[in-house]
Specification:
The protein contains 15 helices and 13 strands.
Length: 507
């Protein structure tokens, strides 16, 4: 294998350097890696979905220092098989129903390979024009698939950028909003800025607020209720804003969510944007998981009112078969990002930038360096086409509906919240627990369901995760792995039933 380590001939004092980019070796080893990964996917169902190792397992298997001399790729691949795979939780397993999907695809893999192979650092246009221009094109393509208003597209004065994750997208837009306001009221007023979300909003918002210098006292996680399906109420938002204004604070930023992590709840984008607009609040819509579904006409209504928002993001690496990492962020006013995030060092000066005819994506993100992410999104869009992508998403929703039907037919279980997309939130119902349940004692019900999830995941056959909404512990069954089919849904339900029977019988 190519190595930067020199081989020393101590007898004659010569040194021979191996070539780290030996093209013949690259071709040979590349074929081996592709074969290894193809076999991995062929056999992926034989592995426990969630890794069963204990903390620190790998240190006892690997040497405590790097090798002095090169090792053959055959040995390294064998060590991956023997030592690395046991410590992997197999997100691409068809029996993976935890968190949200991280759907992969052949096109995504190959696009990543091409991107990595070119290894360009496309921080500005001149550093690699194709990387910048392809990104601008695919972001407009995708925006049109979502029927975003033209104001979010380059063709309409807005624009899109590929970030790494939603955390980065929220942070960038929050910083842009912060600087817009502080440029008007003075930097010293940062202590007065207030950020809003619901108690279901992803914790990335709170982290971004801390990084952006917002006082923790000025972070508002507005309570939601079951009556509103755990979506953020516009009346509750306005009440919070009015209260803050009354004590001299400055409402700054709202993060509305389409498809919350806990239950895929949907905040009403239009009504919330109307409230925010009255008070000059920047609205960011986080559709990290569910946004991909909005390429289907039957789901597009979930982002109705998006024309009132300032920015919108989704993760193509979740439910759009594009492989981690690929977060799509659209903004109406790119200049807001550029003013807040631009860098203009002498070494970066060039005619293209100074012509104001190009996009320099370094000014749309936190870091300077950036990967050629557009390549894999381009391959996915071209390799599968809009119709096939819509049908893949619909197939996952249909499988979730099927699982929901299985839950509904078993009186021991209940669906906790309405299903919006391809995730079902369920639990063992209080009625199934019987005599052990005291009136109104949710703690017992929660503990039973907590134990059920431990048992289900301990089987190794499937993997699910949980959340708590309105004090109710529920199990999340998220369909979205690319290889999942109805037989895997049946297996998952069988595991749930078997574990439930064993647990209730024993109790």
């Amino acid at each position: 294998m190519g190595s930067l380590e020199a081989s020393h001939d101590l007898k004659n004092g010569s040194t021979h350097l191996l070539n780290p980019l030996d093209l013949d070796e690259f071709r040979r080893q590349g074929h081996m890696i592709i074969d290894f990964l193809a076999d991995y996917y062929k056999n992926i169902e034989k592995y426990p979905v969630r890794s069963q190792v204990e903390p620190g397992y790998l240190s006892s298997r690997l040497p405590d220092s790097a090798p002095l001399d090169p090792e053959p790729i055959e040995t390294i691949i064998q060590d991956v098989e023997n030592h690395i795979i046991p410590g992997i939780t197999h997100w691409q397993s068809p029996n993976y129903f935890a968190h949200f999907p991280s759907s992969g695809s052949t096109a995504g893999f190959l696009g990543e390979m091409v991107s990595t192979g070119f290894n360009v650092v496309g921080f500005n246009w001149v550093s690699s024009p194709a990387a910048t221009e392809l990104e601008s094109i695919v972001m407009d393509w995708f925006g049109k698939m979502l029927q975003l208003p033209t104001s979010f597209l380059f063709s309409g004065g807005g624009g899109g950028v590929l970030q790494g994750t939603t955390c980065e997208a929220i942070l960038c837009t929050l910083i842009a909003a912060r600087d817009q306001v502080l440029n008007q009221v003075g930097r010293g007023s940062i202590v007065k800025l207030v950020v809003y979300g619901s108690d279901q909003t992803h914790f990335a918002l709170q982290k971004a607020a801390r990084i952006a210098g917002i006082s923790p006292k000025n972070f508002r996680a507005i309570p939601t209720t079951k009556d509103d399906a755990f979506g953020l109420s516009p009346d509750s938002l306005e009440s919070a804003i009015v209260s803050d204004l009354a004590v001299g604070l400055i409402p700054l930023f709202l993060c509305a969510t389409v498809g919350t992590t806990s239950s895929t709840a949907v905040d009403p984008v239009g009504p919330l944007s109307n409230v925010a607009k009255r008070y000059g609040v920047w609205v960011h819509v986080d559709a990290a998981y569910a946004g991909s579904a909005c390429i289907c006409p039957e789901f597009r209504h979930f982002i109705d009112g998006i024309e009132g928002a300032n920015s919108f993001s989704l993760n193509a690496h979740k439910w759009f078969f594009t492989n981690l990492d690929c977060c799509c962020l659209w903004v109406k006013d790119p200049n807001a990002l550029i003013k807040a995030l631009s860098t203009n060092a002498e070494c970066l000066r060039n005619k293209a930038t100074e012509s104001n005819q190009v996009v320099d994506y370094k000014d749309w993100q936190i870091q300077l360096s950036r990967r050629f992410r557009a390549m894999k999104l381009w391959l996915v869009l071209r390799s599968y086409g809009v119709v096939n992508l819509q049908n893949l998403i619909r197939s996952h929703v249909d499988m979730a509906k099927y699982f929901e039907g299985l839950v509904g037919m078993d009186k021991r279980f209940e669906v906790v919240v309405p299903r919006n997309f391809a995730m079902v939130c369920f639990r063992i119902s209080p009625m199934a627990i019987g005599d052990r349940l005291k009136s109104g004692d949710e703690n017992i019900v929660n503990e039973v369901n907590r134990n059920l999830l431990v048992s289900v995941n301990g089987s190794g056959r499937v993997y699910m995760t949980h959340d708590v909404v309105g004090g109710v512990y529920m199990i999340r069954f998220a369909v979205g792995a690319t290889l999942t089919d109805y037989r895997h849904v049946d297996v998952a339900w069988e595991v749930v039933q078997d574990c439930t029977h064993a647990m209730l019988t024993k109790s």
